[in-house]
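Recap from last week: sequence in, structure out.
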Amino acid sequence: MRSHQQVVTEQFGSTAVAYLTSSVHAQGADLQALAQIAAAIPGARVLDLGCGGGHASFAVAPVVEKVIAYDLSEEMLKVVASAAAERGLANLAVRQGSADRLDFPDASFDLVCTRFSAHHWRQLPQALGEVFRVLKPGGRFIVIDTAAPADVLADTYVQAIELLRDTSHVRNVSLNSWRKLLTTAGFAIAHDKTWKLRLEFDSWVARMRTPQDNITAIRALWQAAPGEVKEYFALDAAGSFSIDVAMLEARKA
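Predicted C-alpha coordinates:
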Protein backbone atom coordinates (compact mmCIF):
# COMPACT_ATOMS: atom_id res chain seq x y z
CA MET A 1 0.00 0.00 0.00
CA ARG A 2 1.27 3.46 -0.90
CA SER A 3 1.83 6.01 1.85
CA HIS A 4 0.58 9.59 1.54
CA GLN A 5 4.15 10.76 0.89
CA GLN A 6 4.42 8.29 -2.00
CA VAL A 7 1.15 9.58 -3.45
CA VAL A 8 2.42 13.17 -3.26
CA THR A 9 5.75 12.24 -4.84
CA GLU A 10 4.08 10.34 -7.69
CA GLN A 11 1.46 13.01 -8.34
CA PHE A 12 3.89 15.89 -8.58
CA GLY A 13 6.80 14.00 -10.08
CA SER A 14 4.76 13.41 -13.21
CA THR A 15 3.42 16.97 -13.41
CA ALA A 16 6.50 19.02 -12.51
CA VAL A 17 6.89 20.86 -15.82
CA ALA A 18 3.16 21.72 -15.87
CA TYR A 19 3.53 23.51 -12.53
CA LEU A 20 6.58 25.42 -13.71
CA THR A 21 4.65 26.79 -16.70
CA SER A 22 1.25 27.20 -15.00
CA SER A 23 0.09 30.82 -15.18
CA VAL A 24 -1.93 30.29 -11.98
CA HIS A 25 1.28 29.52 -10.10
CA ALA A 26 3.75 31.73 -11.98
CA GLN A 27 1.79 34.97 -11.62
CA GLY A 28 0.09 36.92 -8.85
CA ALA A 29 0.35 40.04 -6.74
CA ASP A 30 1.16 37.75 -3.80
CA LEU A 31 4.54 36.93 -5.37
CA GLN A 32 5.34 40.64 -5.57
CA ALA A 33 4.27 41.09 -1.94
CA LEU A 34 6.44 38.15 -0.89
CA ALA A 35 9.44 39.65 -2.68
CA GLN A 36 8.88 43.00 -0.95
CA ILE A 37 8.78 41.32 2.46
CA ALA A 38 11.99 39.41 1.71
CA ALA A 39 13.75 42.51 0.35
CA ALA A 40 13.17 44.32 3.65
CA ILE A 41 15.25 41.73 5.55
CA PRO A 42 19.00 42.46 5.20
CA GLY A 43 21.03 39.44 4.10
CA ALA A 44 17.99 37.17 4.36
CA ARG A 45 18.26 33.39 4.32
CA VAL A 46 14.96 31.96 3.05
CA LEU A 47 13.33 28.52 3.02
CA ASP A 48 10.59 27.93 0.41
CA LEU A 49 8.69 25.03 1.93
CA GLY A 50 6.88 22.75 -0.53
CA CYS A 51 8.30 24.82 -3.36
CA GLY A 52 6.43 23.10 -6.20
CA GLY A 53 7.39 24.79 -9.46
CA GLY A 54 9.67 27.17 -7.57
CA HIS A 55 7.84 30.42 -8.21
CA ALA A 56 8.13 31.75 -4.65
CA SER A 57 11.86 30.94 -4.73
CA PHE A 58 12.26 32.70 -8.07
CA ALA A 59 10.44 35.77 -6.69
CA VAL A 60 12.65 36.19 -3.62
CA ALA A 61 16.02 35.00 -4.96
CA PRO A 62 17.00 38.35 -6.57
CA VAL A 63 16.58 40.21 -3.26
CA VAL A 64 17.97 37.78 -0.64
CA GLU A 65 21.31 36.25 0.23
CA LYS A 66 20.20 32.60 -0.04
CA VAL A 67 17.02 30.67 -0.76
CA ILE A 68 16.49 26.92 -0.42
CA ALA A 69 13.67 25.44 -2.49
CA TYR A 70 12.45 22.46 -0.47
CA ASP A 71 10.06 19.80 -1.75
CA LEU A 72 9.16 16.14 -1.41
CA SER A 73 9.29 15.51 -5.17
CA GLU A 74 12.73 14.87 -6.65
CA GLU A 75 11.43 15.50 -10.17
CA MET A 76 9.96 18.84 -9.13
CA LEU A 77 13.29 19.87 -7.63
CA LYS A 78 15.12 18.96 -10.84
CA VAL A 79 12.79 21.26 -12.76
CA VAL A 80 13.32 24.07 -10.23
CA ALA A 81 17.12 23.68 -10.27
CA SER A 82 17.18 23.76 -14.07
CA ALA A 83 14.94 26.83 -14.25
CA ALA A 84 17.04 28.60 -11.59
CA ALA A 85 20.20 27.96 -13.61
CA GLU A 86 18.55 29.31 -16.76
CA ARG A 87 17.57 32.46 -14.85
CA GLY A 88 21.03 32.93 -13.39
CA LEU A 89 19.87 32.50 -9.79
CA ALA A 90 23.13 31.20 -8.34
CA ASN A 91 21.94 31.77 -4.74
CA LEU A 92 19.06 29.28 -5.12
CA ALA A 93 19.64 25.70 -3.95
CA VAL A 94 17.25 22.75 -3.80
CA ARG A 95 16.75 20.24 -1.00
CA GLN A 96 14.46 17.21 -0.85
CA GLY A 97 12.39 16.41 2.22
CA SER A 98 9.05 16.48 4.02
CA ALA A 99 7.56 19.63 5.54
CA ASP A 100 7.03 17.96 8.90
CA ARG A 101 10.67 16.89 9.28
CA LEU A 102 13.12 19.65 8.38
CA ASP A 103 16.77 18.65 8.30
CA PHE A 104 18.06 22.08 9.29
CA PRO A 105 19.52 23.38 12.58
CA ASP A 106 17.48 25.55 14.90
CA ALA A 107 17.29 29.24 13.95
CA SER A 108 18.59 28.72 10.41
CA PHE A 109 16.34 31.10 8.46
CA ASP A 110 15.16 34.70 8.54
CA LEU A 111 12.11 33.90 6.42
CA VAL A 112 10.15 30.73 5.68
CA CYS A 113 7.45 30.82 3.04
CA THR A 114 5.03 28.31 1.57
CA ARG A 115 2.77 28.88 -1.42
CA PHE A 116 -0.01 26.57 -2.64
CA SER A 117 1.49 23.61 -0.79
CA ALA A 118 0.16 23.33 2.77
CA HIS A 119 -3.11 21.68 1.71
CA HIS A 120 -1.00 18.61 0.88
CA TRP A 121 0.59 18.37 4.34
CA ARG A 122 -0.75 15.47 6.39
CA GLN A 123 0.98 16.55 9.61
CA LEU A 124 0.26 20.27 9.51
CA PRO A 125 0.73 21.10 13.23
CA GLN A 126 4.02 19.19 13.26
CA ALA A 127 5.17 21.07 10.15
CA LEU A 128 4.33 24.41 11.77
CA GLY A 129 6.37 23.38 14.80
CA GLU A 130 9.31 22.64 12.53
CA VAL A 131 8.95 26.02 10.82
CA PHE A 132 8.97 27.73 14.22
CA ARG A 133 12.10 25.79 15.20
CA VAL A 134 14.16 26.64 12.10
CA LEU A 135 13.25 30.34 12.13
CA LYS A 136 15.52 32.80 13.88
CA PRO A 137 14.01 34.89 16.70
CA GLY A 138 12.06 37.65 15.00
CA GLY A 139 11.87 35.58 11.80
CA ARG A 140 8.84 35.66 9.54
CA PHE A 141 6.63 32.90 8.18
CA ILE A 142 4.49 33.64 5.11
CA VAL A 143 1.66 31.24 4.27
CA ILE A 144 -0.12 31.50 0.92
CA ASP A 145 -2.61 28.74 0.13
CA THR A 146 -6.02 27.93 -1.23
CA ALA A 147 -8.40 28.20 1.71
CA ALA A 148 -11.56 26.53 2.93
CA PRO A 149 -14.75 28.61 2.95
CA ALA A 150 -16.26 29.47 6.32
CA ASP A 151 -19.58 28.15 5.00
CA VAL A 152 -19.71 24.42 5.80
CA LEU A 153 -21.68 23.44 2.69
CA ALA A 154 -19.30 25.24 0.33
CA ASP A 155 -16.40 23.71 2.28
CA THR A 156 -17.77 20.19 1.77
CA TYR A 157 -17.96 20.69 -1.98
CA VAL A 158 -14.51 22.21 -2.42
CA GLN A 159 -12.82 19.48 -0.37
CA ALA A 160 -14.61 16.82 -2.45
CA ILE A 161 -13.67 18.24 -5.84
CA GLU A 162 -10.08 18.90 -4.71
CA LEU A 163 -9.66 15.26 -3.66
CA LEU A 164 -11.20 13.96 -6.88
CA ARG A 165 -8.90 16.17 -8.92
CA ASP A 166 -5.77 15.34 -6.89
CA THR A 167 -5.54 12.33 -4.55
CA SER A 168 -2.59 13.92 -2.70
CA HIS A 169 -4.95 16.63 -1.40
CA VAL A 170 -5.40 16.60 2.39
CA ARG A 171 -7.44 19.68 3.29
CA ASN A 172 -7.85 23.34 2.51
CA VAL A 173 -7.72 25.23 5.82
CA SER A 174 -9.94 28.22 6.55
CA LEU A 175 -8.45 31.61 7.43
CA ASN A 176 -9.77 31.35 10.98
CA SER A 177 -8.27 27.86 11.40
CA TRP A 178 -4.93 29.13 10.09
CA ARG A 179 -4.96 31.83 12.74
CA LYS A 180 -5.57 29.26 15.47
CA LEU A 181 -2.94 26.83 14.14
CA LEU A 182 -0.26 29.51 13.89
CA THR A 183 -1.03 30.91 17.32
CA THR A 184 -0.90 27.43 18.85
CA ALA A 185 2.49 26.88 17.20
CA GLY A 186 3.82 29.98 18.97
CA PHE A 187 3.56 32.57 16.20
CA ALA A 188 2.20 36.09 16.44
CA ILE A 189 0.11 36.98 13.39
CA ALA A 190 1.12 40.32 11.93
CA HIS A 191 -1.19 40.44 8.92
CA ASP A 192 -3.63 38.31 6.93
CA LYS A 193 -5.95 38.67 3.97
CA THR A 194 -7.99 36.64 1.49
CA TRP A 195 -8.94 36.94 -2.16
CA LYS A 196 -10.48 34.89 -4.96
CA LEU A 197 -8.47 32.97 -7.56
CA ARG A 198 -10.15 32.02 -10.85
CA LEU A 199 -9.45 28.43 -11.98
CA GLU A 200 -10.14 27.48 -15.60
CA PHE A 201 -11.51 23.94 -15.44
CA ASP A 202 -9.74 22.26 -18.37
CA SER A 203 -6.26 23.51 -17.46
CA TRP A 204 -6.94 22.84 -13.75
CA VAL A 205 -7.53 19.13 -14.33
CA ALA A 206 -4.96 18.82 -17.13
CA ARG A 207 -2.20 20.19 -14.88
CA MET A 208 -2.73 17.28 -12.45
CA ARG A 209 -3.54 14.72 -15.19
CA THR A 210 -6.79 13.93 -13.44
CA PRO A 211 -8.30 10.63 -14.69
CA GLN A 212 -11.39 10.97 -16.89
CA ASP A 213 -13.60 9.12 -14.39
CA ASN A 214 -12.67 11.65 -11.73
CA ILE A 215 -13.30 14.55 -14.10
CA THR A 216 -16.77 13.13 -14.77
CA ALA A 217 -17.37 12.87 -11.02
CA ILE A 218 -16.29 16.48 -10.45
CA ARG A 219 -18.65 17.70 -13.17
CA ALA A 220 -21.46 15.63 -11.64
CA LEU A 221 -20.84 17.17 -8.22
CA TRP A 222 -20.84 20.68 -9.64
CA GLN A 223 -24.01 19.99 -11.61
CA ALA A 224 -25.78 18.66 -8.49
CA ALA A 225 -24.58 21.48 -6.24
CA PRO A 226 -27.24 23.75 -4.74
CA GLY A 227 -27.52 27.30 -5.96
CA GLU A 228 -25.77 28.76 -2.92
CA VAL A 229 -22.65 26.69 -3.66
CA LYS A 230 -22.61 27.55 -7.36
CA GLU A 231 -22.98 31.22 -6.49
CA TYR A 232 -20.24 31.10 -3.86
CA PHE A 233 -17.71 29.68 -6.31
CA ALA A 234 -18.99 31.71 -9.29
CA LEU A 235 -19.31 28.42 -11.17
CA ASP A 236 -19.80 28.75 -14.93
CA ALA A 237 -21.14 26.34 -17.54
CA ALA A 238 -17.63 25.08 -18.39
CA GLY A 239 -16.96 24.11 -14.76
CA SER A 240 -14.51 26.96 -14.10
CA PHE A 241 -14.78 28.51 -10.66
CA SER A 242 -13.26 30.92 -8.14
CA ILE A 243 -11.56 29.54 -5.03
CA ASP A 244 -10.56 31.31 -1.83
CA VAL A 245 -6.87 32.05 -1.20
CA ALA A 246 -5.43 33.15 2.14
CA MET A 247 -2.13 34.90 2.85
CA LEU A 248 -0.85 35.21 6.43
CA GLU A 249 2.29 36.83 7.77
CA ALA A 250 3.34 35.43 11.15
CA ARG A 251 6.39 36.18 13.30
CA LYS A 252 8.48 34.26 15.81
CA ALA A 253 8.95 36.30 18.97
